[in-house]
Amino acid sequence: KLLFEKEDGTITDKFPAGYTIGYFLISNGYGNGYGKDHTPNDVNLTPGYMGNLGYIYSNQAWNSNGKSSFVAITDSETERVIYGIEDGTDKSYEDMLFYIEADPKGSIYDPERPVIPPVDDKPVTELHAGTLLFEDIWPSGGDYDMNDVIIEYSRTVTFDKNNVVTEIKDTFTPVWDGAQFLNAFAYQINAAQVGQLALPEGAVYEPEIQSIVVFPNAKEVQKQK
User: Fold this and answer.
1) Is 159 left (phi over 0), alpha (psi -120 to 50) or beta?
2) Does 225 fall in a domain?
């Protein structure tokens, strides 16, 4: 919490109008020894060098290289002012991040500062898909043609605005069965992560083996999702 000292020496948490608060960072300022003198001229501007740039000021004119190493943006939802600092030369502005809150919030408003738009609260869904090929006499060698049962699958994972998984939907489509055996298909899930299950007709959850038996006979459900 920043405080203001008046001319008479009294301290207050209210800053008079018109005052500007600046910040600085000492790049690579931590050392193993004591008494290291970091001066504003302690700078290495060798291209690609990610070492000490000495004092880095939010006031661009004070930086020894004359370049800006601070960026400031406003979060329109919280009205916080967020600063990113570049302590080297790659201009990622992510080496240190901090935000400021003021009361009233509008007291540090800058109409020229970029604004972060509100976060979209709509859920986000990721899709994963592939094909499973099975040899049904494994681990025996046999013909090892991997075409006894072929299943196409897709999985959608839905996240809420807090990046918490709210739904997982698995879809399996048996597209081929050239086996002599009557093969069932099942897959295991982590028992600790089992929530509310909604299984299609014929599918069974067997908690003893932490598995969902999707279908007992692949020959009977070819081309069915």
Assistant:
1) beta
2) no
